[in-house]
Amino acid sequence: MYTIPLQNESELDRQMLQKDIHWPDDRTPASRRYGDIYFSSENGLNESRYVFLQGIHAPEIWQNKDHFTLLENGFGTGLNFVMTCQAWVKTAPKNARLTYIATEKHPLSPTDIRRALSPWPELDEQRDVLLAVYGVRSQGYHHFTLLGGRVTLLLLIGDSAHNLSGLEASVDAIYLDGFTPKRNQDMWTSEIFRQCARLAAPEARLATFTAAGFVRRGLEDTGFKIQKEPGYGAKRECMRGCFTGPSSSDLPPWYHRPEPLSQGRHVAIIGGGIAGLTTALALQNRGYQVTVFEAEASSMSQASGNPAAIIDPPVTGGDTAEAQFSRSALFHALDYYTAHMPNAVLSRGLNKYPARPSEGEKFISFLSHPPFPHDFVSAGPNGAVHFPECVSLRPPQIREALEAHLPRTVKSRITSLSYSEHWTLTCGTETTPHRADAIVICSGPAATGYPQTDTLPLEPVRGQISLFEADKLPSPPEQARCGAGYLVPPVEIAGKSVLVTGATFQRGSLDNTLRPEDHEENLATLAGLWPEAGPHLSSDCIIGGRAAIRAYSPDHLPVCGPVPDMTAYQTAYADLHHGPRHKTFPVAPYHPHLYINSGLGARGFMTAPLLAELISGFIAGDALPLPRSLIEALHPARFMVRALRKAP
Questions:
Q1: Closest CA to 558 of 444, 642, 644, 452
Q2: Which of 341, 368, 428, 488 has its CB surrounded by the most CB atoms within 10 Å?
Q3: Whether residue 371 has a cis bond before it, omega within 30° of 0
Q4: Helices (DSSP H) in 477-563: which residue ranges?
């Protein structure tokens, strides 16, 4: 989920919270703001089937496709979505996937959606599938997986033109279903039509209930061939169309998307940490055969192997790429763990304290204009920021839940990669190499251990945690705390109740042996986060610990996307310092079907679920779950592009 720039959020959040829907006849949902109904409760379903499903020629349009993408401008009550899901499940090829993208400026509550769709019990199954995952707490992109990966819903909350302008997708069909143009002109602008054309695949179908002349002319001006059709019921006409214009993308050539990999092919994941396992599951949900290669005896045994972890949002506002991505990943992760593996949630609630006295003013400023929904953050004790929905996690349960869905993990340390029509993965101790059609490198600091990736600026950082016997300490906190380090509520380890505290931070170190001085540092951290326990804290309370190596990038953002061929990049974009428009540049030269998902740092559990969807979207050619600005901010080529833009 992508959070739009901070300066717009307070107004948009206010609009979201304002109760707009009402029921003038106790049955028909209507909008006070626009003075219009969402649909007629008497014939709304039949009208939607006629206008939209028949309008795009469904189900015939998707019969020979293993992946179909549909864009709706105006999600509303979700009627078109659940109706389309029902038709998809009944008529689409068994292993085909539907990606449904929808914009909505004023999202309804789950209660209102349930009530709005109640006149049609035949939709109850699809409605309940939607409501099981539906949760919209802020503006931006919200990514949901339904029906075991067969359906993906990407909800774009906020201004439609703004959100569509950042969307990277190729859509096969379009529903234009905002309130009537006379009531809501913002949904029927030339910019909306331009974005629809930019996103439309060749011969994409379009359907809308309106026959307004300026809508027809606007669509025709952007490349759609439009015809009027008889309307439904008392409505005289509606419109249907087909896109006949050229395909286009607003991505600069050095970030151009690579060719997708066809469904059913084999993808190798190097690294079985939280990044690797979530990526493997996301790809499997998209119909790929997946093998995870893990160098250690078991997966999630390195940086992801701590007995407890926290979802720790940064206390920062503004619209920097780091702030926007962190907020996006935060909401996605909370939905991901609570919906798909609730048993992995150890505790709920987080108090975040300033790590140093100089941060006190920053926390006060953050609380005065928080970039979160009004009920997601509040002032905590002693200058803390309280996040009531943030969770601490049990990584062993996360590993168990993810591995239960993944058929194959191979214990193997991959030492070399080579490509000739397919990828060959070699392990130094094995005589028979492995083969794959694509590779995703998810091995943390080891990700740069191949010639294809050795120029990426990923730095190893050592972190050590300490385990404290909770029974020796009075009344441990029931919620996580963090600041200069973190404290997780008691978790059971080998029959003992244990507090987890950490982690130290040593740049450039690959040594994972335990250090007594790091235990002392963590003891001081625990005392600072839990001053009430001060008299009871001593080294005698420490019963163990572990150290692991994480990967960081220079700009503190993950490195996620296709791996650039750095030599070819230098040649292709050698003149980039003159400016991007003085010549036509070639599209990005990548190593074929080679990807990386690394540099997650200390927030791997928060960022991995969203990064998994991003990397699998790249591979599948699917709609990407982040806007263009963040795709570029996470792209592995960004460091090379920045260097090439500087004058030699």
A1: 444
A2: 488
A3: no
A4: 516-529
